[in-house]
Amino acid sequence: MLISEGGTLGEWKSPLDSNPDPWPLVRRVFHEQSREAERACRKSIQTNEMGRTALLLLGLVVCARHSEGLSLLDAGTAAGLTLLLEQCRVRFHKPDGSALADYGTADSPVCINCRVPGVSAGLFGLRRPSGFLDVPPLLGRLGFDRRPVDLADPQEVLWQVAQVWPGDARRRARLIRAVDQWRSSGASLPPRGDATTKDLLDLAQKIPRGDIVVSHLCLSTSGSASLRKEHAFKNRLSELAQERRTFEISVELVDKQFRFEVLDWAAPKTPRILLSGRCHPHGTYVQVESTTMDAAS
Ligand SMILES: C[S@@+](CC[C@H](N)C(=O)[O-])C[C@H]1O[C@@H](n2cnc3c(N)ncnc32)[C@H](O)[C@@H]1O
Hints:
Blueprint: H1 2-5, H2 15-18, H3 23-32, H4 34-42, H5 52-64, E1 70-75, E2 89-93, E3 99-104, E4 111-115, E5 131-132, E6 140-144, H6 154-162, H7 169-184, H8 199-205, E7 211-217, H9 224-243, E8 246-254, E9 257-264, E10 272-279, E11 286-291
Parallel strand pairs: 1-6, 1-7, 2-4, 3-5, 7-8
Antiparallel strand pairs: 2-3, 8-9, 9-10, 10-11
Helix pairs in contact: 3-4
Bound molecules: S-adenosylmethionine (SAM).
S-adenosylmethionine is lined by residues 46-49, 52, 75-78, 82, 145-147, 194-196, 217-219.
């Protein structure tokens, strides 16, 4: 409906947010604009969720403790919005709302809050809570996707926005601001590539400096086909780890639960878990369950 309603994004307001009975609108769109509706129904779900930037950042903080310099390779990056992490404002906080660690650009229009119960400032390498995170700059970064999302195309932008759940006006507004940020940063369409194939190794070579962190934020869904693919993906990671020091940041659905894991592939066949826990798929919280680092509050 967002696609067929059109309009400029800055002014746009979801009819599902403001209208208590959306059915007249749904019927109208399906009857009067059936071609557009049919086209929209054929599109695949491919979100780019800014909240996951907090999970990516936390993973990078953990990897940085084990490395002299990191580069980031984001598999399944969609449009690559989460790659612009320094331009966001990320705030990790306790369940009572008090600040633990802050990161990014103080006056950024893209604000991300992540609750981290049971975690101390020590996990972030800070002596006291409420400090500013000093994460070493990335030596290189690249995102790729099986089907990259081109934010230069206004229809693709509308599709991105349309995938935010109705009623979630704050998330939608944040996404629109992130798209503006992406445009003004001069970022371009991420390259095409499949994380389960040799593409992963070829694309890693495009970022020659530093240890490599392969991140995948909600790349796969559950089911046997994706498990087979996950096996192929892990094999590619193991191959990469034989060439180069490799870390992995994973946010995926496992047994009906979203899991957050940071792994060190120093031993390419048996990666070591540096941190693992449950998380919200939109990065609103991480419940750390095990870590090799100082994390307890
Ligand atoms: C749910 S979206 C998440 C996008 C982004 N990582 C984020 O966190 O917002 C999953 C993305 O993974 C991509 N994808 C799925 N399987 C892939 C594969 N084998 N190789 C590369 N990209 C893949 C999809 O095209 C889609 O853009």
